[in-house]
Design brief:
Blueprint: E1 2-8, H1 11-17, E2 34-38, E3 52-58, E4 81-85, H2 86-92, E5 94-97, H3 100-113
Antiparallel strand pairs: 1-3, 2-4, 3-5
């Protein structure tokens, strides 16, 4: 099981319609729809849009190598990030919105690990 995170301001739309389905749920690059996922939450001052934290659980067998961003592109950010197409996320990801306490715990773990 791979656990990744996505910051957004349209969590309910994603939970209802999936990634890349509605006007507010376009992500990734200008030519594709999907989501920028990371191994830890991305803060707004690091480029995140929104303050709702989604947790995505993906099967270990799903190889995300082709979608991983080069560390050089991430600058000083100390995490790993993937730009995964919406059809892949919608097919394989189990997605849930973390409540305030759960999100705080994830943020705390990521800060302590940095």
């Amino acid at each position: 099981m791979q656990k990744l995170y996505y910051m957004t301001d349209v969590a309910e739309l994603i939970l209802q319609q999936g990634f890349g389905q509605g006007d507010g749920a376009r992500f990734a690059t200008p030519t594709s729809r999907g989501g920028y996922l990371s191994d830890r939450p991305v803060a707004m001052d690091e480029g995140a849009i929104g303050d709702q934290l989604l947790e995505l659980v993906l099967p270990d067998a799903l190889d995300l190598t082709a979608y991983e961003l080069d560390a050089a592109e991430l600058g000083s950010w100390q995490g790993r990030e993937w730009c995964v197409p919406a059809p892949v996320l919608n097919r394989y990801a189990s997605v849930r919105l973390l409540d305030g306490e759960e999100a705080d715990e994830v943020w705390l773990r990521s800060w302590l690990a940095a």
